[in-house]
Amino acid sequence: MFSICVCCTFGTLFLSSGIITTKLYQNIENKIKLTRPIVITVVFGIFFVAFFSIKELEISSEVFKNASNILFLGGFLFSTSLALSLIFLLRTKEQLVEIESSRHQLLQLQEESRAALTSAQAGMWSLDLKTNRVIWDDYMHLLFGVEPKRFKGTLDDVMESIHPKDRNAILSNLKNAAENGARIDSIFRVIRSDGSTHFIRGNGQLFYDAEHKPISLKGICFDVTDMMLSQNYGVISEAIAQTLANGDSFHQVITDIFQILNNYMGWEVIIIWENSRSPNLHCTQFISSAPEKHVKFQQAVQNTTITKGEPLAGVAWATSKLAFSRNISEEEHFLRTDITKEENLQGSIAVPIFANGTIHGIIELYKSTPFIEQMDSAFISLMHNLGRGVGQFQRRKIAEAERDELASVVKAAPDAIYIYTLDGKIKSWNPGAEHLFGWEKQEILGQEIYKILPSEQYAEHKQTVELCKQGKVVSSFETVRKKKDGTLFWVTKSASPIYDSEGQLIAISNILRDISKEKREYLSVAKNEEKFRAFVETTADWVWEITSDGLFTYSNPSVYPILGYSAEEIIGKDLSSLLYDTLEKKRIKEEIAQSVVKQIGWTQRMIRLCHKNGQLRYLQGSAAPHFNETQKLIGFRGSDRDITETVKLENIKAQFVSIISHELRTPLTSIFGSLGLLVQKEMPPEAYKELLTIAYRNSERLLHIVNDILDVEKLAQPNIKIPLQPVPILKVIQEALSSIHYLAEKSQITMEIQGEIRAVVLGNYERLMQVIINLLSNAIKFSNVGNKVTVSVELFPDTIRVNVIDRGVGISEELKPKIFSRFVQCDSLGCISTAGSGLGLSICKSIIEQLHGQIGFSSKFGEGSTFYFDLPLYREGHA
User: Fold this and answer.
1) Full domain range(s) for residue 749
2) Which residues contact 363 (CB under 8 A, 6 or more apart)?
């Protein structure tokens, strides 16, 4: 019991000393409650009590019985505890002073960091990952253009200020940093409340608590708009340069450049103003990134012309400098202010289009936000390069178009156009030169110019070079040049210098026109007027001259074979007296009157005149007006050609078509009728046979006409050759007589062979059969009933002649020259009318000539005709 009391007493002493020490410490620093001293004292007290309670101490009871010793021991222990507490207290105070000093240093460092960030135009931000609360310093509000009182501190508030195209990237970066601890370093765009766009760079990192759990993201942001614009200017310049280098058309290039400016700088409208067709600027191209938003603005632009000095393009035009407006809708003198306000267009700039030191137009750009770009050297250089690049591209395309047009003209020009260098090497040669000189382009390029010069013209060439070196153009003059084959010919030549881009003479261009014909005619007329007159008077064409009233003042002798009048008889006659009828007189009178009024002639005009014997003559001719020395029209000079036979042939051709139509229709009608009766009616076998016979004969007739038409076209083609082979002529004749026998019996004509010579000719069996049958058919058709047709054969050393002789009506003298022509029928000129295509004899002539033979005839009208052909005899070794 005594032990317990002693323990409690000493424990109380230890506890009291701890409390006293703690109170002293609290007096030193009452802001921080440290319990370490009292805890240590209590521990010592508990230890002491436990020590005496649990373990029996080997302390003599006499010691405890001595009160003075107990008091001494208690005081000793109390003093020791108090001393230890005071020592600990002093140590803690020193640590506290150190902590306070560190805290002040940290606060000072924070203030210095904040000042440094402010001077660097950077703002600090913090995002609490548990609450998603965002804390900004004052400069962050300036960077984002958000007033502090309107900023609610949510992530959604931040996203509202970020460009819509950049929001997903920012959210992805924040998520990646929060989940993976990745550092944040990104550039994004911010749209401020005034509508301007700025580039912001954000840096940040993840922060953890004591348990290493992520609690927040913190970092800084700063404005990098100038840097990004500067970088973009280089990218934009390169993209524009590439577009201009690869562009095909001006319209497409402007479209592509607008896409670049829209993507990188946010320009929403581009307008091209030009003054090529008027003293004022007018819109030639309008492009919008959102056409539906700028309909009224586009209409206003396209209906507006701008004079020098008018905002905004007119100012750039007048000053030859960039003109801009931070907000065009606030410009008082801008013609389209109301519409720009309505369609929310603000920032604008006008860029002159330069080429070769001259303004050729203006580029205007518009956006729906204010124009915030700094007019620094980089931006000004970008805009100037844009204007110069577009201007040079436009001039280049115009030059290319002119060059291509010139190249087309040069290529198509009949004149010789070539270029040679100053040292006399030919470097360009057009098709006209190829035709004129006979030198192909690949042959002459690089050759000396002396290749085409006669030696007499060397001095002339040197003089031309000297004149071009003096910058002079050599006007057209007559000279002589040399063809590839050495032939000399007259030309008119002009020459002009060619300069490079630096104005240095590099070559000489030459244009030559062949005047050989004109020169020859001129020299011929100059030397011998009578020779020319002889030519006029010997030509088959009728050459004449009439007054404006239609009186003949000259006629060459060719009028006689055409109209039957001598040249002397025609002179003084009125043209109207030669016209065939009243209608023709009226028509020609009106046409001449019109020619007099318009002072023009006529070309290829057909006229109907009356021959002296009363026959109709068709003439076709041309005429030119004839003027006196005072350029007064005094008449017409012209020539006419007799086309009477041509007109007749055309009529014959038309008649042939009519005949063929009839010849085809007649057998077809018979065939159709016969077959129709066979199909529709029952009849005895004899009737069937008769109808079939009619159809067969008409089919044969039809086939013969069709074959004639096909043969005449086939034989007329030059690439069609008849194969040659040995042919026994007698066999062909006999077979032909057998084939045509039924026609002879029908016409009661007797056929015979005279001179049965068994010779072999070089020919073609089928074609010879065709010729002989055709001649026999004609002989039978044009023979009277009871007459005889004879086939005779005559043998010559190298040839054989086959004659087909009839005793019929013969051939008239008028028909003989045309007997082997196409579409000629005997009945058209007075013979007995017989059916036929008019092609048979023409086909015979073509066949015999292709077999290397000859065909002819002899006839006396009213007594009969003999048609014959000669063919070469076949010899061994013939191909």
Assistant:
1) 721-872
2) 270, 271, 272, 273, 350, 351, 352, 353, 386, 387, 390
- The residue out of 80, 113, 146 marking a domain boundary is 113
Q: Within a 10 A sphere around the Cβ of 227, how many other Cβ atoms?
A: 12
The answer for residues whose C-beta is within 8 angstroms of residue 596's C-beta and 6 or more apart is: 548, 633
Rounded distance, CA 829 to CA 648, Å? 12
Of the candidates 448, 445, 423, which has an alpha carbon nearest to the alpha carbon of residue 434? 445
Q: Are 19 and 38 in contact (CB under 8 A)?
A: yes
Residue-wise pLDDT tens digits, 76-108: 666 666 666 666 666 666 666 666 655 565 555
Q: Say if pTM beats, i.e. exceeds, 0.85.
A: no
Quick one: CA dihedral 796, 801, 802, 806, positive or negative? negative
- Phi/psi region, residue 121 (left: phi>0; alpha: psi -120 to 50; beta: rest), is left
Q: Name the nearest CA neighbour of 767 among 872, 867, 845.
A: 845
**CATH number for the domain including 458?**
3.30.450.20
Within a domain: residue 654?
no
How many CA atoms are closer than 13 Å to the CA of 242, on its beta-carbon side? Answer: 7
Condensed to tens digits (0 to 9), the pLDDT of residues 364-399 reads 999 888 877 667 777 888 888 898 889 888 888 887
Q: How far apart are alpha carbons 108 and 121 in whole angstroms? A: 20
678 domain-assigned: no
Same domain, 428 and 467: yes
CA–CA distance, 161 with 140 (Å, rounded to integer) = 12
Distance, in Å, from the CA atom of 807 to the CA atom of 830, rounded to the nearest integer, reads 17
